[in-house]
Structure prediction request, 155 residues.
Amino acid sequence: MIFYIKQKILTFGDKFSIYDEAGNEVYYVEGEIFTKRLHIYDSNRLELAFIRQRLFSLPLKFEILQDGDVVAAISRKFSILRQNYKVEGLGWSVSGDFTGHCYDINTGDSCVARISKAWFTLGDAYQIDIQSGVDEILVLAMVLAIDAEIDASSN
Prediction:
């Protein structure tokens, strides 16, 4: 299934809408002002996942929580030649061109999701192609966590 994440601009705090292939808003993401905390809500504004930056961690680490439990943690691996991310808790790996915002989320030798950035848009916009049977909320949360880590690292 294909989803599109579109950042809303001119707002206080991070806000994103997530659309399905038909252009229907299916999820809404709202960030807390002055923090790297994001809440993913369904169309009824029920929280499905929470992303937070773990304070005082080097490298920066972002955790994904569902129902108050940490289900995954994402951090950048140190590498001189290229960016890599370490994913704890899901058995997933992330590879690709992060500065170009074109990367894959993998489990073992199969691709779970393919992410690409839409260029020439106001605010960030991503297309996420998720394989069937994969928890779409976890994939969307991971994409948002990586986006938050890239943003925090560039500041």
